[in-house]
Amino acid sequence: MRTKAPVEWTGIAIQTTDQAEVTTDLGVTNLRRTSWASGTELIDDIAHGEAGRLSTVVITPAIEGWTLVVGPWCWLPFLQSAGPLTNLCKMLSARFGKAQAYFHSEQDDGEAWLIAENGQVIRRWVGEYPELALGDPFGVERQLLNAYGIPGKPEDLDPDDDKLSEWIGGWATAWQQRSRRNRAWTRH
Fold first, then answer.
1. Contact 43/72 with Cβ under 8 angstroms?
2. For 108-121, what is each residue's pLDDT tens digit?
3. pLDDT digits over 27-46, tens only?
4. What are the percentages of helix, strand and coil residues in the chain, rounded to 5?
5. Which of 159, 119, 161, 167 is nearest to 140 (CA)?
6. How far apart are CA 77 and CA 87, in angstroms?
7. Burial category of 52 from C-beta neighbours within 10 Å (exposed 0-12, middle 13-18, buried 19 and up)
8. Mapping DSSP to helix (H, G, I), strand (E, B) and coil, where does residue 10 land?
9. Is the overall model pTM greater than 0.85, yes or no?
10. pLDDT more than 90, % of the chain
């Protein structure tokens, strides 16, 4: 059965196959088993509801060596959660080696990502809040910046720069290509 992915995808990827350890480290309670289809439907409903918006996550079994924690609780562009989520990813990467947080919206609500390794933030970008950026672009981000002729960092550009707008618009294509290949964004 083929299921539709949520229109907004927000979550943390942790480089571990130990779902139980992730669950314990996050302090998740009131656990119940669900299918991916039911879990994504639940997350989509909660993300667009009024009550309990940040109360639920889906924790996947290991996928190619990574455990995913998916849900609006992991919403990096939510200004009040950017700091705590950054600290959480630092803690998880110190324990498991790598932790990455992502936000993607097909409704032009922004793009955000955080890459942490061995307890250190390598890169954080929150499209709505460029001042929150940390580290240097690399990997897919650097490739897309190069493709649009943007040297340096996007946070250093004028917010009204056409190149910046085009680059931000290019992320929809990058996400589609990435999801087709089903690979984690890693640093080499």
1. yes
2. 667 889 999 999 99
3. 888 888 888 788 778 777 77
4. 40, 20, 40
5. 167
6. 15
7. exposed
8. strand
9. no
10. 27
Q: For 58, list phi and psi in degrees, rounded to 5.
A: -110, 130
Strand partners, 105: 8
Tokens of 96: 């498991």
31, burial (CB in 10 Å: exposed 0-12, middle 13-18, buried 19+): exposed
- In the chain, what are the domain boundaries? 8-135
Local confidence band at 88 (pLDDT 50, 70, 90 cut-offs): very high
Tell me the CA end-to-end span of the chain in Å, nearest whole number.
35
Query: Do residues 106 and 7 make contact, with C-beta atoms less than 8 angstroms apart?
Result: yes
- Cα 76–Cα 180–Cα 119 angle in degrees, nearest 5: 35
